Amino acid sequence: MPRLLLFIESNTSGTGRLFAQTARALGFEPVLIGRQPGRYPYVAEDAIRSIEANTADLTVLRSLVQQLARSEGVAGITSSSEYFIATAARLAADLGLPGPDADAVAACRNKATQRRRLDEAGIDQVRHAEVSGVADAVQAAIGIGLPVVLKPVAGSGSVGVRLCATMAEVAAHARVLLADPTCGALLVEEVVRGDEYSVEIFHDAVIGVTRKHLGALPHFVEMGHDFPAPLASTVADRIAGFALAATRALGLTWGPLHVELRLGEDGPHLMEVNPRLAGGFIPELVRQATGIDLIRATVELAVGRTPEVTPTRQEHAAIRFLTPPDDGLWFATEGLEAARGAPFLRDLRLYRAYPLLIARRGDFQDRLGHALTSAPTLEAAVAAAELARCAIRFRVAADGTGSLATVA
Questions:
Q1: Is 276 a catalytic residue?
Q2: Is pLDDT above 50 for 360?
Q3: Catalytic position from the list 276, 367, 389, 395
Q4: How confident is the model at residue 369 (pLDDT cuts 50, 70, 90)?
């Protein structure tokens, strides 16, 4: 029986390690294939077998994977990185292994292509335009009407996503984005008002709806999540049905999907469909609240097993992220012990260590840590997460004085 479970690259926020640990727990040997495996600290810390390869070259990967299949046997191929899910799917298909439709994943990852396909299916009518130049971005914004959201057609974690309230801002942000040689095109979208939610889907079935909390505009940094979202059942059902219609229209029915939307006065409007597990530790919120382990389920699906995704409990979970209050030198942290005393706390961690020079980017990379809680009620889970968050203070020398600053 094949024992290798191949991972093409990894994400950098914790899920990659959990995928590898889960593979081991299920009796498989995780093997990470990456351009620079050493950039993922858990590979060395957990003694994960790794192979260095050019993961941007499908021909190179195919040769390597086929060699491993012949010599040791490959049980499954997947990735915890959104950027390599389509690549992993193509490699899995080559060996006759389970995986999502690679073409559907690749089309979904291009936000402009995704919008076009949803338009063709009659799913949502958010005004948008794909552009490849600064002048075109301004013209699109004129046609759509200010303010607009401007973002790269490919990306993740809110990287490069910005609200532009003036034509000058549209031109300036387009210029910054297009200066990156990897950014081939931009998407200009109308702004949708309303609270933001995400729908967690697994194998064409809705697992639940997450309430999302965003930071200050013009950026869209996710500062916290609550699961399940506090919604009336009729509203939750409407959101779930809307999300499923979108994923099915995109040809995505295999494995985990993460659909982001806003709930306006006239109903839900799509932000984007992500052909992967949710980030931001939402899978852990789901596990704490329902007992459903979406990471384990994804790994089991990749090796041809039938995962169990039936809830075993009914609780509530919340996470609040810790961010620096200013740019500058982070040189100390206060309040960790007080935060650890918060009730219902399940996980409190910092992702980085000081001293560290902070330069906020307006995306997920601004987050320095999190407090995650679960409790019998959502109110208790949220209160505990906020208590832990507010207890922690980062000392940031924004002006060289080292004055005390509190997490925003």
A1: yes
A2: yes
A3: 276
A4: very high
* Percent of the chain whose pLDDT exceeds 70: 97
Residue 407 is predicted with a pLDDT of: 42
**What is the rounded end-to-end Cα distance, in angstroms, of the chain?**
52
At residue 155 the predicted structure's pLDDT band, cuts being 50, 70 and 90, is confident
| Residues 90-125 pLDDT 10s | 999 999 999 999 999 999 999 999 999 999 999 987
**Strands 148-152 vs 256-264: parallel, antiparallel or unpaired:** unpaired
Taking residues 349-355, what's their average pLDDT?
Answer: 93
Q: Could you give all domains of the chain from N- to C-terminal order, each with its CATH number?
A: 4-99 (3.40.50.20), 127-190 (3.30.1490.20), 193-313 (3.30.470.20), 315-407 (3.30.470.20)
Dist. CA 290–CA 285, nearest whole Å: 8
Exposure of 342 in the CB half-sphere (CA atoms within 13 A): 30
Asked whether the beta carbons of 328 and 358 are under 8 A apart, the reply is: yes
pTM: 0.93
Please give the average per-residue pLDDT across 46-73, as a whole number: 98
Tell me the three-class secondary structure of the chain, residue by residue: CCCEEEEECCCCCCHHHHHHHHHHHCCCEEEEEECCHHHCHHHHHCCCEEEECCCCCHHHHHHHHHHHHHHCCEEEEECCCHHHHHHHHHHHHHCCCCCCCHHHHHHHHCHHHHHHHHHHCCCCCCCEEEECCHHHHHHHHHHHCCCEEEEECCCCCCCCCEEECCHHHHHHHHHHHHCCCCCCCEEEEECCCCEEEEEEEECCEEEEEEEEEECCCCCCCEEEEEECCCCCHHHHHHHHHHHHHHHHHCCCCCCEEEEEEEEECCEEEEEEEECCCCCCCHHHHHHHHHCCCHHHHHHHHHCCCCCCCCCCCCCEEEEEEECCCCCEEEEEEECHHHHHCCCCEEEEEECCCCCEEECCCCCHHHCCEEEEEEECCHHHHHHHHHHHHHHCEEEEECCCCCCECCCC
Q: Please state, rounded to an integer, the average pLDDT across all residues of the chain.
A: 94
